[in-house]
Known about the structure:
This protein is an alpha/beta fold and 474 residues long. It contains 21 helices and 14 strands. β6, α10 and β7 form a beta-alpha-beta unit. α12 (213-225) packs antiparallel against α13, α13 crosses α18 (409-425) and α13 packs antiparallel against α19.
Amino acid sequence: MPRAHPFWALVLAVVWCAALVGLYAYAVAGRGPSRRKRQRSWDFYGTLMNRRCSEDAVFQAVEDKYGPPGFAVARKRAQAGRRRTIAEIYNDMPEGMRDRLAQEMRLELASLYPIVESCNRLRPGDWIVSDGPYPPEALRGFLQAFGIDTRELKIVSTPAGKRDGWIWSAIGLRGGLHTGDNPWTDGVRAWLGGQRPRLYLSAQPTWSERLMGSQAGEALTETRLANPYAPGSEEHRVWSCEQCQFNLPLLVCSSIVLHNSIKAWGVTRVLFATRDCCIWAGVYAALYPAEADTLVYFDCSRRVFRQPPEQYLEYVERLLPHDGSAVFVDISGSGRSFRRFFRRWPVARRPAYFAIGSYVESPLLPRTGYVLWPWPFGVRLEVLNYDTVGSLVGYGDGGAHRGPCEYPLNLVRVAHAAADLFLAKIQPCSGTEDVRLARHRAHIILGATVMLIPIEQRYHVGAHQNNNVGETSK
C-alpha cells in the first residue's frame, strides 16, 4: 500500500486543527444567553438611519437658510479630528454661531430616512450605540419622528467610546450581537469588546446606484432601503433587486433617450403601450412633468391589433393627431404587429415607433428609435413591468375588455409599490442630460440580463406561458 505524501498529511492536519478551533470558537460564542435571548445592539447611522446628504451638506444648509456666513466652515473645523459631543463642539464655535444647534438638528432630521429592514428588527431591550456627536435624546427624537417606538430601547451616544472600545464594558454589554456598518468600530473594536459583530453594508450604494449618479442614484438607494419585506423573501427580491437594481435605472436611462427622440421628431402625443409600459409611463411623467398632458396609456395587444373591433378603430382614430406627431412606445419587440395595424391610416398619420430593444427590425427604418439593438436573445424585460390588469382581449362600447391577470398579483403589486415610492423621490430632469451617457448606462445595466432567466421562469406561469391568452408584445 503506497504511503501518503508528507505534504498532504501536513495539509490534512492543518485543516483538521482549523476545524477544531472553529468548532471551539463557535461553542464558546454560543455559551451564556441563547441566541434568542442574546442582548443586541445597533449602530445608528448607516444601520438604522441613513442620510440623503453628507454632514458638510447639512452644515452648508444651516448657513444658507439661517446664516451667518462662514457657519459651515466653522462647524466643520470645530468637529474635525476630534471625537466630541455636540455641546463641546458648539462651545468652540465663534460668537454669533452658538445658537444654531436647534436649526442644525432640524435640518439633520430632514436629511435622514429610516432603513426599514433594520428598524423592523428592533425589539424591546435592544441597545443603540452611536459614535456620533448628537446626544441620546436627539437620536430618540429622530427615531420617533419616523414612528418608531423607542420607549423600551436603550440609547447611548459616545463619540469616542466605540472607537476606543471601552463603551461595551461601561454599559455592561458582553456576549451580545452588535450590528453596524463600520468594519473597525462596529467590527474589530466590538469583537475585542466581547461582542459578536455583524457588519451591515446594505446602506452603501450598489453598483447600479453609483452608475446612475447622484440624483437618480440617491433616489434608488432611498427606495431600496425602504423595502418593508423580510430579507430572503420573494417580495424583498422583487423590490430591492429586480426593481431598484435593474428595472427602474433602465427606465430612467430609456426615458432620457426617448425624450431626445420625441424632440427630434416633433411629437405631441406619446402612446405608451399597455401593459408593458405601465411603470415606464410613470417614470417618464416624473422626469418630464411638463409633458404629462401628452402621455396616453394606450390600450393595445397583439390580439386586438390582428383583429380590431370597429370600436377599437374609433378609439385609435380619436388619439392619432392628423399631422402624424405621435409615437408608439413599447418595452421591446419587433414592431411588426404595430406596423401592420397602422397601415390602415395614411403614411402622414402613422405614429413613430420607439422601444428599449428591437429584436429583428432594422433601426434604420424611418422614425424608429431604440435604446439597444439588436436585442439580446432570450431577454424579456416585460417580466419586470407587468400591470395589475389582464391582457386586452377586446374593445367595445364600454371601453377595454381585459382578461384576468395571469401573473402572481402579490409580486406585481410589490413591483408597483417600489416604483411608486421611487417616483415620489426622483427629481425632474432638466432636459439637458447627456443622451449618449444615458444610452451607455442602459447598455451596462442590460449587461446584467443573466438575472432575467430565473425571473422569467418564475413569472411566466399558466395560460400565458402557453400563449392561450392575449399577448402583450407588439
